[in-house]
Amino acid sequence: MILQNLLQRITVLETIGTLEREVSELVFDSRKVVENSLYVALKGTVSDGHYYISQSIEKGAKTIVCEDLPSEINEEVTYLKVENSSKALGHLASNFYGNPSEKLNLIGVTGTNGKTSVTTLLFDIFKNLGYQSALISTVEYRIGDEITPSTHTTPDVIRLNQMLAKAVEIGCEYAFMEVSSHGISQDRIEGLHFKIAGFTNITHDHLDYHGTFQNYIYAKKRFFDELEDSAIAITNADDKNGLIMLQNTKAKKKTFALKTMADFHGKVLEIDFNGMLLNFNNKEFWTTLTGKFNAYNLLLAYGIALELGMDETEVLQAISTLKRVNGRFETIKSDSGIFFVVDYSHTPDALENVLDSINEIRTKNERLICVFGCGGDRDKTKRPEMGDIATKKSTLAIITSDNPRTEEPTQIIKEIEAGVQPQNFSKYTSIPDRKEAIKMAIKFAEPKDIVLVAGKGHETYQEINGVKHHFDDKETIRELLQLMGK
């Protein structure tokens, strides 16, 4: 593609060299440069891409986009100085791949919890309704029937546009993607055209990256602030920060809620481990998904589907046939009658929601055992909070490891234990080895008891010192049940 044609919606402060230059590839990693590449020098949190400009030119880059022009100028190279390289990259990527987000109905969902569930539910609803769609989520990327493992919740903007372009090529009409706070802050969604933006909820998370809760809120809010006036913004009116998302948006404003009046209002009429009887906008239906948090997820998916013009009755019928999302409140029942719930809940709010959902369902004659941990090299402020929640809302909490990464597991556990209230000291134990912790829960459990194994959900690994070791909670539960004869 000719360089001149890639510069739509980009303000170039200074140009050195010709714009009539062929661009074979867009790259921001100097290691991926090929002949005639356009290299974008990004100022990252770890390294500055400007240091690799000369290296990129040596490898064949003929166009450089940067915020600071290098002191030495190569006459065979075109240099474009911009105010913000990462924002420029978003528009370059969109233009390079033919602006695919404008040829699709692109739906973005943000929030602390529920992003994966809502986007996956939407993908499945629209598949049920007969539409080809794309899904970009924490668990996997799907383009029609093609599935590839996910690398990031929100991939880099080049990869995003590649996937969206492929979705357009195979005839997809819709694309549903998770939009993370990291992705927003790092301009990974710059240049994308969103039809609808949905907000699930916000609680303390990623403070290791954002620094303060206010910064975290602002990162989410920025997604809505930058929507076009042709877009639709749907927020959770029950979340205390939900309406903040709509304060400065130019988009059409919509709300959903279980507790307050909203454009899309829901009620949980009946609930058990097999599912829920729900009422959405005065229409009753049954779903095999369970837990109040899933009622919120379904309500947002329902609202988005209706805003996209789908028939309400057909949407509710599609929802009724949905299966549970991988690693989200998945249940296993042992031969002896012990109920296991495997869930990805790895934040205080998510853990509390799952425990509350189980406590709403159980009759209190059964014991509730919670196996959980906290990730290493991540927000430490949530550790004591999760220790308090788990011990307060469980019969027994077993604190264990959950991707310790470069931290010492016993130190993470100590920080979790610091939040346990004195009256709950007798309600927990600590076992650093996750398999042994699950084994302890099975050993302690009796028929009809409920064991929540939280934190990993769909993940099939345990990350220790930079190495991912195979570990699957569901697989481990089944293996131990067979071994222990329960």
Automatic annotation (TrEMBL):
Carboxylation is probably crucial for Mg(2+) binding and, consequently, for the gamma-phosphate positioning of ATP. A motif (Meso-diaminopimelate recognition motif) lies at residues 402-405. It is found in: Cytoplasm. The modification N6-carboxylysine is found at K220. Residues 327-457 form the Mur ligase C-terminal domain. Gene3D superfamilies: Mur ligase, C-terminal domain, Mur-like, catalytic domain, MurE/MurF, N-terminal domain. Pathway: Cell wall biogenesis; peptidoglycan biosynthesis. It is an enzyme of class 6 (ligase). It catalyses: UDP-N-acetyl-alpha-D-muramoyl-L-alanyl-D-glutamate + meso-2,6-diaminopimelate + ATP = UDP-N-acetyl-alpha-D-muramoyl-L-alanyl-gamma-D-glutamyl-meso-2,6-diaminopimelate + ADP + phosphate + H(+). It comes from the Bacteria. Catalyzes the addition of meso-diaminopimelic acid to the nucleotide precursor UDP-N-acetylmuramoyl-L-alanyl-D-glutamate (UMAG) in the biosynthesis of bacterial cell-wall peptidoglycan. This is UDP-N-acetylmuramoyl-L-alanyl-D-glutamate--2,6-diaminopimelate ligase. It comes from Epilithonimonas vandammei. The gene is murE.
